[in-house]
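TL;DR need structure tokens for one chain.
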Amino acid sequence: AGAGGAALVGFAQAGADAVSRSVQDKLRDGFVTPEDFGGDVVKAAARAFELNRTLLLQKLYVLTKKDASGYMVPLTGGIRIRAAHPGCGLKVADGFGDYVCIIGAGMGVDLSGLDIEGVTIDHNERGNATTANVVLVPTNLRSTLNISKVDGFSIRQNTILDATAVNSFIVNQQGVVNGLRRGFIDANLWIDVGRDTNNVTTDHSTIYTNGSNISITNNKFYAYSFGAKGAVCAIEPHSTKTFISGNEAYGFRDFINVTGITQQGDVRDVVCADNVGEVWGSGIRLFSATSGTHTTGYGLDGVTVRGNRVRIRQSLAPAGGQQQLGGIIIQPGS
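>> reply
TL;DR here they are.
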């Protein structure tokens, strides 16, 4: 049936003061779906921003393409994304190969107001394995989410499967001054992090933040396995005024790495409280040293660490060249 028929049928909401509208107008309220655009998630995301609508994902959509920058679902602005029911979301196709990121945008794209809740994001490393060390190949970072410019965001209650990237949730990685502020990363679930990571001593973190006024709360992280092919770090904040509480991490090398490597000056006013985990390396690491190409080494000022409980499984540490093992560590040189 053509859209013209819906435009000819009237609709009026119940109750006083209701005005007459067409059925077509009413059906366009609220949200768009990929089915509105031939099943194309990328087109639906772009139209959702243009039309100020929610992007509603009604099934698990298999992603088979990427843009020139390596993004599978590039965003053009801050939108709301919801799943129609549990299990709906995005999945990388079998044998897809290299990609930079599943969803998000690079430098300069303002994603203020981004709100993602209840979505399943499946990296599908079971069907899309690589023999390369993905953390060292810029065209194959395989991140879940990348947002660099935003003021106000919420990432809640999502399920991420097989995350294996240099960083899974990248929040303002470039450290742009005031690039990212005021947001929540809350109650997300990561399952089988690091399934395809080939070297656990390389640098990657499941949540990586710069900016300020960020809450990282009530998330659960489960590594694919303890040991050399497991996950490295669950939470790595480089952000000022950051509240980290109620998180759980199991099977990682490190739990929380509070870091002063940033382009914004000292990292101030960070709280790490009431987190629980089981790792083989460090529970909470305070890191303000220079490191490699990171030559700033700004300080950490006003960091509170209290009430955390972390079991250190030192017997599971792989042999050779690991970082220090312990509950609370101050990185040498800091």
